[in-house]
């Protein structure tokens, strides 16, 4: 399983936990033509972390740097799951059976041919992608994400 094929890049942006922070970020991305494919927002009392999958990671990075944002890029996998009760559970059970730790999961704003798309951050991205593919789970590749 190649890193280029089925490993997606996620951008995690650190925001102050105050009114308007997310709105300002969203406007900056929109003004720079950045199209969101997935979004998750987690918060603590003082700050939040916006996790994004975007169509163009490099352009997004430039827009964030120019705006003075602090961010990191991480590897994640995008998985197409049947949009029905148990679809996600089956994928997570495969990972659990292989002793792969899931750090977090969130859904995308897109779907693929009637399937829900979930983003999974695991402790071993390449191993997880290889195992899921071998079990017939559909992994989203970078080009599919860009086109959606």
Question: What is the CATH architecture term of the largest domain?
Answer: 2-Layer Sandwich
Shape: globular
How many runs of DSSP E, i.e. beta strands? 7
Q: Would you identify the CATH H-level superfamily of the largest domain?
A: VC0802-like
**CATH class bucket of the largest domain:** Alpha Beta
Oligomer: single chain
Radius of gyration: 16 Å
Unreliably modeled segments = none
Number of helices: 6
Structural write-up:
The chain has 148 residues and is an alpha+beta fold. The protein folds into two domains: 7-74, VC0802-like (2-Layer Sandwich); 76-147, VC0802-like, CATH 3.30.2130. Helix content is 35%, strand content 41%. Strands 1, 2, 3, 4, 5, 6 and 7 form a seven-stranded antiparallel sheet that branches. A hairpin with a 2-residue loop joins strand 5 (102-112) and strand 6. It starts with a helix and ends with a helix.
Keywords:
148 residues; alpha+beta; VC0802-like; 2 domains; 41% strand
Compact description:
The protein is α+β, with helices and mostly antiparallel strands and 148 residues long. The chain contains 6 helices and 7 strands, in the order αβαββαβαββαβα. The protein folds into 2 domains: 7-74, VC0802-like (2-Layer Sandwich), CATH 3.30.2130; 76-147, VC0802-like, CATH 3.30.2130.
């Amino acid at each position: 399983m190649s890193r280029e094929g089925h490993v997606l890049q996620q951008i995690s942006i650190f925001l102050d936990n105050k009114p308007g922070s997310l709105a300002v970020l969203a406007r900056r991305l929109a003004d720079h033509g950045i199209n969101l494919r997935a979004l998750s927002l987690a918060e603590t009392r003082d700050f939040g972390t916006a996790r994004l999958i975007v169509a163009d990671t490099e352009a997004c990075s430039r827009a964030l740097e120019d705006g003075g944002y602090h961010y990191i890029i991480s590897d994640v996998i995008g998985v197409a799951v049947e949009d029905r009760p148990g679809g996600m559970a089956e994928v997570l059970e495969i990972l659990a059976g292989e002793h792969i730790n899931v750090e977090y999961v969130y859904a995308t704003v897109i779907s693929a041919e009637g399937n829900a798309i979930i983003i999974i951050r695991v402790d071993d991205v390449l191993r997880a992608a290889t195992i899921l593919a071998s079990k017939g789970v559909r992994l989203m590749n970078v080009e599919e994400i860009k086109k959606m």
